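4.2 Preliminary Data

To establish feasibility before requesting continued support, the project team ran the inverse folding procedure on a target of 77 residues. The structure was first converted into the token representation described in Section 3, and no sequence information of any kind was made available to the design step. The complete token record follows.
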């Protein structure tokens, strides 16, 4: 399926890795169009405060996990 159906995926993956490599295990805030990095820190509260101070309305918050570990969320009933 990856061969011809989604040829853009490999370039997207490389761009994403390069863009966020230095922010592993951190929270980041992006502008609403996700084009510019507003802030980065280990704690979400610090990133939220930095985005407010910079006057960014409705930033996008993301946590960038470490890439040397796997993540599988647990579901409980």
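Position-by-position output of the design step:
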């Amino acid at each position: 399926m990856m061969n011809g159906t989604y040829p853009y995926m490999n370039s997207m993956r490389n761009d994403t890795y390069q863009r966020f490599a230095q922010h592993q295990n951190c929270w980041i805030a992006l502008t609403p169009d996700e084009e510019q990095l507003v802030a980065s820190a280990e704690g979400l509260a610090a990133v939220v405060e930095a985005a407010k101070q910079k006057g960014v309305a409705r930033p996008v918050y993301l946590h960038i996990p470490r890439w040397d570990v796997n993540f599988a969320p647990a579901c409980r009933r």
